[in-house]
Amino acid sequence: MAPIVSVSNLSKTYASGFQALKGVSLDIEEGEILALLGPNGAGKTTLISIVCGIVNATGGKVTVGGNDVVRDFRQTRAMIGLVPQELTTDAFETVWNTVSFSRGLHGKKPDPAHIEKVLKDLSLWNKKDSTLRELSGGMKRRVLIAKALSHEPRVLFLDEPTAGVDVSLRKSMWEVVQRLRASGVTIILTTHYIEEAEEIADRIAVINSGEILLVEDKNALMTKLGRKQLRVDLAQPLERVPDSLASYNLLLEGEGERLIYEYDTSADRTGITSLLAALAEAGIRLRDISTRQSSLEDIFVEIVEAGR
Asked: Which InterPro entries did the record assign (predicted)?
C-alpha cells in the first residue's frame, strides 16, 4: 500500500542563505503514529509547514494521499489537520464558533454533532460558549487541537501539542490520539517529552541540522540500540576498579560507591554471572544490585551526538 504522506528529496533554503532542510526523504504509512524528534532548529517545523502547504520548498516533492501538495493544494490541505506550536486564536470569539468556522474553512458542511463530540473528547464542552481570552493556556491549546480535528482529517500533525499543558490534560490528550489512530487517522508528532514518544509512537524519525538521521520501528530501535545496565551498589567504596575486573569495562560512580556494567540482552551470555563471581573473588562486598534499560531519550541523544 502506498504511503499516505511521501516526502522525496525535500530541501528548503531561506533568503538569508540558511538551509533548513537538506534532501529529506520520508514515507509515512496510513494509520501509524510517527514521532519526529530533533533538537531546536533541527528542521521539524519547517518540514511540517511544507507538508501542510504553509511554506514553499526550494526543491523536492511532497504528496499526501497521492496528491501533490503544491499542484493539488485544496485536496491535500483538506486531508490534513495541524496543531501548531503557537497559540494563535481569535481572543474575542467563542470556542464553539472558532471550531465550527475552522470546519467551514476546509470546505466541510456544518456538522454540530461532530463539533460536539470533538469538544467533549477534549474536555471543552463546558467552555463552548466562553471566549478564548477567558481560557487558560492549556485550554487554548485544546482549542487548537479541536480546530485541527473539526474537518475530520486523515492526517494529523501535532507540533509540540503538550507544551505548557498540565499532566492530567496531557494524559487525556494522548487518549484522544490513541482513539484517532484506532479510527485510521495518521498522526505525526513532535515533542520535547521524549517519554511520550516512547509510550505512544509506532515509529521514530530523528532529524538534525535539516537531515533525517534515522527512521525506525520504535521497538526494533529500542532492541537494537538500547542497552541494559547492571548497577552494583557496594558495601564499601572503591578508589578504583581492580585490574582483575578490567575485562568487564566497569564504570565507577557515586564517589566509588557504585559499579556500572553494560551488557547486551540479545547476546548468548550477558557476563553477569561471571562478573558477580569475579567481584566475590576480588573481595568486593555488595549492598544492592539493580538493572536499568536505556530509554528512548538516551538513544536519541546518542544518535544526535553521533550525527554531528
From this structure: AAA+_ATPase, ABC_transporter-like_ATP-bd, ABC_transporter-like_CS, ABC_transporter_ATP-binding, P-loop_NTPase
Q: What is the CATH code for 5-223?
A: 3.40.50.300
* Alpha-carbon distances of 135 from 25, 66, 149, rounded to whole Å: 39, 39, 19
Cα torsion 144, 150, 51, 27 to 10°: value is: 110
Residue spans of the domains in the chain: they are: 5-223, 226-294
User: What is the per-residue pLDDT for 272?
Assistant: 84
Looking only at the bridges linking them, the beta strands covering 67-68 and 59-64 are antiparallel
Of residues 295 and 254, which shows the higher confidence score? 254
Residue 24 CB burial class (10 angstroms; 0-12, 13-18, ≥19): buried
Q: What is this structure's pTM?
A: 0.75
Q: How far is CA 303 from CA 73, 174, 223, 232, in A?
A: 35, 26, 15, 27
Look at the alpha carbons of 70, 5, 140, 207 in this order and tell me if their dihedral is positive or negative.
negative
Q: What is the rounded CA–CA span in Å between residue 126 and residue 130? A: 8
Cα 68-110-74 angle, rounded to 5 deg: 10
DSSP 234-291: ESS--SS--GGGGGGT-EEETTTTEEEEEE-TTSS--SHHHHHHHHHHTTPPEEEEEE
Residues 246-264: what's their mean pLDDT? 86
Domain 226-294 has CATH 3.40.50.620: no
Residue 23: all three cell numbers together:
534532501
pLDDT at 282 over 60: yes
Same fold for the pair 5-223 and 226-294: no
Q: Which residue has the higher pLDDT, 115 or 296?
A: 115
